């Protein structure tokens, strides 16, 4: 039984470590994308369609809605169609909202080097802070649930200093 608990302890450690690294890499991706889009040109565009896809929980009850926005814009005489809202994950809402409606004019950011690349939001501070919080909690869990042999190594190295 003792061996089985060591295996579970190690698997929990690896799972939390992988979860923490995933959020760390995604946070780096969001920052990298934001910095690369810093010189993108703000361009007026027109909302073509707004759809909300319903996502139910495991009991079949209403859970959340995913917003899918498509918009068109002109850049140097060429017209483009895009549906990218941000650089991170898709955004979910508890209820469909009226933030965007068809034929509404909004500003989007367009890559001048590749005009087919555009985004509505380059950076969302609240989402990014939530990612950092999840990452820190994951790494805190990694530290708390580290295997006993790893605890012994960290204790030995701290006594040497």
From TrEMBL:
The chain crosses the membrane at residues 12-35, 119-145. It comes from the Bacteria. The keyword Membrane applies. Keywords: Membrane, Transmembrane, Transmembrane helix. It holds the Pfam family DUF3592. Residues 43-123 form the DUF3592 domain. This is DUF3592 domain-containing protein.
